[in-house]
Amino acid sequence: MNRIRHFSTLVTRSPSHFLDIVHSEGPKIFVSGFKNPYLNISMEDFIFQNMPVSDSDASSKTNNNRLLLYVNSPCVVMGRNQNPWRECNVPLIKSLHIPLVRRRSGGGTVVHDSGNVNFSVMTRREDFTRQKHAQMIAEAVNELPAKIEKRITGTDEVEEVSGPQVKLKLNERYDIVEAHENRKVSGSAYKIQRQKAYHHGTMLLSSELKILSSLLSRDVEKMGTIEGRGVESVKSPVSNVGLDKDIFITTVINSFIREYGIQTPEVVVIQQEHLPKEIVQSSRQIAEYDWVFGQTPDFTHTLKISGDFNGLSEVELKFTVSKGLLKGIELESEADLKEIDPGLAFLNTVVQNPEQKVRYTSAQILEFVNNFYIRNGIQKALDGGSP
């Protein structure tokens, strides 16, 4: 039985103290002390943008690598160039009041909850490879024994907890998966910028997989067909590692220390009240409609709606959307849009004017729609009626 190692910790004292640590030379290990997804994602980007980069001359290299670990409250996080209406069940997300977050890096859509830990490793660009840190983490987890002693928070007592329930490996896309069944336990995304890069990912430890699946599944018959540009997620069967959250965090810290030969490791615990205003402002920006939905690449959304439409039992409507704004409506049948719904026909003329901005939400669209069946179909397909 192994006893989990603990490190000296430094708790941030003020925004200026946090900034001093972020800008200082040498390797840094950060653990977030809060679960707000907008703040954590903004903080991650801030640390990356402000980490010092050592001279490219090999004789003067300084290890300024960063490791950040955080746990978010339940949320759905998509890549920068993705379409939320295609990637996830927006009506369900809205009905559960779960934040939908667009990060600043690429990659696919994932669900975060308290059973999932997020990691981010930031390095010099020349030290970056897609598989390096995924392999580092997979090997570290595989080395854990079946039973581990863990210190109970706030005491000197220890408890025995189980080690990982599965062995891990990397697949051909460098995702961390179960070694035997190839079920995905960790998704990754990357960002390369000038002289530095980062690899961040999730690790499913004890997540609610049924809820995860529901949030990322959409019924095409009810929610329609999306066509357009944008990165599509690669759907994969998933599984939990079955490992204690604190054990995983400490294991990743250990592997980072070992990988980069850090002699005097210190973990910086970041308190929410000590975040600088730049991070707070960024967190507000990425929570706004213009970022979450307005950054969506242009697309069309086709809905087939059954009901009573002046003798027709079904209509097919195609909505054209750009930057989260409705730009046009087409009726895919021989009937006239005015005959089916005069209000919807009027809306189509309104959105032809570039000065008129109608968000692609049921709250704004339904202000114009008269037909009960069309109202119901749009509401179910877009967002369940939430603004």
UniProtKB/TrEMBL annotation:
<dbReference type="InterPro" id="IPR004562">
    <property type="entry name" value="LipoylTrfase_LipoateP_Ligase"/>
</dbReference>
<dbReference type="GO" id="GO:0016874">
    <property type="term" value="F:ligase activity"/>
</dbReference>
<comment type="similarity">
    <text>Belongs to the LplA family.</text>
</comment>
<dbReference type="GO" id="GO:0017118">
    <property type="term" value="F:lipoyltransferase activity"/>
</dbReference>
<feature type="domain" description="BPL/LPL catalytic">
    <location>
        <begin position="61"/>
        <end position="264"/>
    </location>
</feature>
<dbReference type="InterPro" id="IPR045864">
    <property type="entry name" value="aa-tRNA-synth_II/BPL/LPL"/>
</dbReference>
<comment type="pathway">
    <text>Protein modification; protein lipoylation via exogenous pathway; protein N(6)-(lipoyl)lysine from lipoate: step 2/2.</text>
</comment>
<keyword id="KW-0436">Ligase</keyword>
<dbReference type="GO" id="GO:0005739">
    <property type="term" value="C:mitochondrion"/>
</dbReference>
<protein>
    <recommendedName>
        <fullName>Putative lipoate-protein ligase A</fullName>
    </recommendedName>
</protein>
<dbReference type="InterPro" id="IPR004143">
    <property type="entry name" value="BPL_LPL_catalytic"/>
</dbReference>
<comment type="function">
    <text>Catalyzes both the ATP-dependent activation of exogenously supplied lipoate to lipoyl-AMP and the transfer of the activated lipoyl onto the lipoyl domains of lipoate-dependent enzymes.</text>
</comment>
<dbReference type="GO" id="GO:0009249">
    <property type="term" value="P:protein lipoylation"/>
</dbReference>
<dbReference type="Pfam" id="PF21948">
    <property type="entry name" value="LplA-B_cat"/>
</dbReference>
